[in-house]
Amino acid sequence: MNNIRxxxxxxxxxxxxxxxxxxxxxxxxxxxxxxxxxxxxxxxxDGVYQLKKEQNSExxxxxxxxxxxxxxxxxxxxxxxxxxSALRLRGLATEDLLLPVQTLDGDSIKDLxxxxxxxxxx
Length: 122
What we know:
Layout: E1 8-12, H1 21-34, E2 39-43, H2 65-69, E3 80-83, H3 84-89, E4 102-104, H4 106-114, E5 118-121
């Protein structure tokens, strides 16, 4: 059987709470990484809130999304990309985030998308 590996980019656009979409995007990333698929994660729009430090989800009786994200390096997902304008518009800086990230401008995001064979936009 051929081992076909295609590079995957998952674009996380949803805030961590309110729907299951943010968690499902991370679950897809973890599953793909477990099967050694080349994978990148880009957090854009409200998706940058997923990376915010000191999340407290007790008031809404939900599991803390940040704890799941800290497992990404254990699966070999070491490079996370963040839309720089999304951070600025939400009053966040890279120091406010749980994990190290690489910020990208619009042109760099286009290049990142073009460099992957599969794009999953959540």
